[in-house]
């Protein structure tokens, strides 16, 4: 876990494959999820993400969980399996992507990335606004896990459809020419993937 940058401070080392069957048996149990999260134990939080009910998750609870994240795997798990299903998903993505704490900001961009995959009803305009935000100020000075979150969002938005692919590729090229080392990495890494997408499968 440590080799992959996962925080092991409050972890037992139980694999996620052993936790998923427990989550399936439990189903949604929001009260239990809140108690599991408060233990601060990594495996309990993995389970909490799965059993929490996104329809019951309040704005305050989402913000509290976001502030308490201390590892990229929990950050991304919250985005993929829980927060992107909330009615507040877009609002929180924009809010968190502008915050200073590294994992809160990464969570915002992880939300954009997962919404690009799962929110089938969102218009292109919403994702163009994200790309413009990334180009203007999201990449410069970003910390390690923020950079990876920005990069992930950029790539996933580009994969959504041909129009967004062209826009994401343009943004990536501009970032690749930036004087900021972090922005250059984001742009170059995203370009490697986006330029391979000569066809779009939908």
Quick structural overview:
The protein has 202 residues and is mainly alpha-helical. It is 67% helix and 0% strand.
Structure, explained:
With 202 residues, the chain is an all-alpha fold. It has 11 helices and no strands. It has helices at residues 16-26, 30-38, 42-51, 59-68, 72-81, 89-97, 102-118, 124-138, 144-158, 162-176, 181-194. It is globular.
List the helices and strands and how they pair.
Blueprint: H1 16-26, H2 30-38, H3 42-51, H4 59-68, H5 72-81, H6 89-97, H7 102-118, H8 124-138, H9 144-158, H10 162-176, H11 181-194
Keywords:
11 helices, mainly alpha
* Tally of separate helices: 11
Q: Give the helix proportion (percent range).
A: 55-70%
Instruction: Label the structural class.
Output: mainly alpha
Average pLDDT rating: 93
Compute the number of strand runs. Answer: 0
Sketch the major β-sheet: none
Q: Which residue ranges are poorly predicted, with pLDDT under 50 across at least 5 consecutive positions?
A: none
Distance between the termini: 34 Å
Overall 3D shape: globular
- Tell me the strand percentage band: under 5%
One letter per element, helices H and strands E, the order comes to HHHHHHHHHHH
Kindly provide the radius of gyration, computed on alpha-carbon positions and rounded to a whole number of angstroms: 17 Å
């Amino acid at each position: 876990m440590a080799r992959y940058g996962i925080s092991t401070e409050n972890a037992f080392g139980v694999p996620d494959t052993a936790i998923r069957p427990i989550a399936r048996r439990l189903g949604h149990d929001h009260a239990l999820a809140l108690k599991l999260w408060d233990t601060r134990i990594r495996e309990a939080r993995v389970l909490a993400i799965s059993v929490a009910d996104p329809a019951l998750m309040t704005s305050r609870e989402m913000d509290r969980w976001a502030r308490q994240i201390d590892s990229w795997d929990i950050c991304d798990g919250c985005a993929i399996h829980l927060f992107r299903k909330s009615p507040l998903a877009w609002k929180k993505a924009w809010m968190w992507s502008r915050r200073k704490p590294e994992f809160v900001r990464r969570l915002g961009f992880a939300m954009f990335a997962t919404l690009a995959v799962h929110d089938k009803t969102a218009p292109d305009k919403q994702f163009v606004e994200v790309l413009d935000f990334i180009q203007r100020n999201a990449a410069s000075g970003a910390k390690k896990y923020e950079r990876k979150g920005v990069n992930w969002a950029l790539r996933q938005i580009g994969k959504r459809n041909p129009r967004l692919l062209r826009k994401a590729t343009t943004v990536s090229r501009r970032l690749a020419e930036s004087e900021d080392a972090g922005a250059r990495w984001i742009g170059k890494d995203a370009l490697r993937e986006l330029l391979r997408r000569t066809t779009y499968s939908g």
